[in-house]
């Protein structure tokens, strides 16, 4: 019986500590995109003759002006399974975009922009709404181009 009372006491102390002070924490107010990334996905055949999905991270140089991001993409030099023939296929119509956003924020595509993390057409600017934990939000526009 003494053992059960001891465990009950620990649980009561622990649960009261968890709830204490949480209502006083401020909500994060950041609603920024801090960096934008692109990758190219393609299929290759491995040594056993099976097809497999490969990806290459594309080098990006981002310029952030207000709520606009201009991302200049440089196609990496071919190496390994990313051959010169595959590098020649990289274009803005079938790459994958992803980004870093402020802590505790959420992001969603607007005005017909593609979901992040899937192959999409980036030949036109796309807009995303980033909402901070405190409810404030910013609309961001991303414009991509590939260096010759």
CATH C-level class is Mainly Beta
Total number of strands? 8
The average pLDDT score comes to 90
- Helical proportion, percent range: 10-25%
For the biggest sheet, the summary is:
8 strands, mixed
CATH fold node name: Immunoglobulin-like
How many distinct folded domains?
1
Oligomer: single chain
Beta-strand share of residues: 35-45%
* Gyration radius, rounded: 23 Å
Figure out the total of helices: 2
Task: Give the termini distance in whole angstroms.
Answer: 77 Å
Task: Give the second-level CATH assignment, the architecture.
Answer: Sandwich
Spans with pLDDT under 50 lasting ≥5 residues?
Answer: none
Q: Determine the structural class based on helices, strands and strand pairing.
A: alpha+beta
- Global shape: flat
Secondary-structure element order, N to C: HEEEHEEEEE
Enumerate the strands of the largest sheet in spatial order, edge to edge or round the barrel: 5-7-8-3-2-1-4-6
Please render the helix and strand layout as text:
Elements: H1 2-19, E1 33-45, E2 51-65, E3 68-74, H2 84-89, E4 95-101, E5 106-110, E6 119-120, E7 126-131, E8 137-146
Description:
This protein is an alpha+beta fold and 148 residues long. It has a single domain (33-146), classed as Immunoglobulin-like. The chain has two helices and eight strands. It has an eight-stranded mixed beta sheet, with no helix packed on it. Strand 1 and strand 2 form a beta hairpin. The chain is flat, with a radius of gyration of 23 Å. The N and C termini lie far apart (77 Å). The mean pLDDT is 90.
